Amino acid sequence: MRKNIVAGNWKMNKTLREGIELAKEVDQLLKDAVINCDVVLGVPFIHLASVVQAVDSKKIGIAAQNCADKESGAYTGEVSAAMIKSTGAGYVILGHSERRAYYGETPEMLKIKTELVLKHGLKPVFCIGEVLEEREKGIHFDVVKAQMAASLFDLSAEEFSTVTLAYEPVWAIGTGKTATPEQAQEMHAFVRRTIADRYGKELAETISILYGGSANPQNAKELFSNPDVDGGLIGGASLKAADFKAVIDGFNK
Ligand code: PEP
After folding, report:
1. 173 CB less than 6 Å from ligand 1?
2. DSSP classification of residue 179
3. DSSP secondary structure code for residue 226 in this structure
4. Which of 4, 16, 69, 171 is a Cys-bridge partner for 37, taking CB atoms 3.0 to 4.6 Å apart?
């Protein structure tokens, strides 16, 4: 009914040559493998066009990790959704907590970015998640709901149906502290109910909700076995082809 997806987020790692090598290694590992999910690589902007060429597009989708909140013009250093589309990439990761925290991305900016991504026929992988203090205060559900409402809930149902969500508790990203499978399932079920309240249950059932935060070959299978966890957004463990493949294998019975 909905897709399982494992998406890598390379962040600001790998030179162009290293990135092409890594993409080719992943491609090789998936070549004759039976996999039970879609696979996406989230790569730096300058790698996009080359990595698109380096992999079998029937098996591997390519994502940018951000895009500009403007269509085009005098915005030195920015990369537009149209430019990303022109590389052959199919996805854009938006609202990653590192971009919210270090680059001042606001819910309003992310709303505009989401609209531009959709306008150019790309699929957003939209990140949501609370910081530790918010979880400790018990307001994590409110925080996540507010993030979705502020940036996504003005989309039409048709537009929203192309969005993939990634629940990434900020306290779990790059820290080695994974959310427990119960914590992940609890929040994913909440996210799906929140989508259902806005767009209806039928549409909510079709939306893939990925977990992100120190997912790795050891914990992927247990995380993915939860009914509302439809895959993962994988940082550190996506930087080695064998580890990334082992996470993908978390979907094998
Ligand atoms: C991420 O960057 O989205 C992420 C989940 O990172 P890590 O897997 O390294 O925690």
Report:
1. yes
2. P
3. S
4. 4
